[in-house]
Amino acid sequence: LIVHNIISNNIYDLDADSLNVIRNSFSMVKFFYTNCIFDIRCTSNLFNLENPKIIHEKMKYYQDTYQLSNDHFEIPVFYYHNGLKYLPRNIIKQLEKKDFIDGGAYNGDSALIFEKHYNPKKIYSFNYNIILRIVINKNNNKERV
Q: Sorted alphabetically, which InterPro entries does this protein's record hold (predicted)?
């Protein structure tokens, strides 16, 4: 019921096939984690294997560019674009003017990256943690995304 309400309240412009895919996907999930289950220090160490200096400089740029209300900047989101930056260029071009669904939006940070780098038609961000909904709304206000 909660998932149905979230989908109904957050995804307005999708066609019937897209809505069915989302509903079927969520119907298979038995439990939703509402908080991060990984320690950021642990996951950061995994991503810092690349070039710590370059990553640090790029993250500094994002911290200066985006003032997130909870000041939580994750390397996988901002530096690696949730893995999207490793897709071939022709695949990334196919993402342009498509709808992006950010289910489990945490603080809305991915939506900022999607908007800036992937030219989406529309971004749907939602989270099951009601407290984080306030943070998402602050970070993704109409002037920014």
A: SAM-dependent_MTases_sf
- Domains of the chain: which residue ranges? 1-31, 34-139
* E-only strand ranges, the chain: 99-103, 122-126
> Which SS3 state, helix, strand or coil, does residue 65 take?
helix
Written as six digits, the tokens of 121 are: 């038609």
At 9-63, the pLDDT tens digits run 555 567 778 777 777 766 665 555 454 444 444 444 444 455 677 777 888 888 8
E strand or H helix at 138: helix 130-139
Looking from the CA of 48 toward its CB, the CA atoms found within 13 Å total 12
Please give the structure tokens belonging to residue 112: 């900022």
Which residues pair with residue 125 across a beta bridge? 102
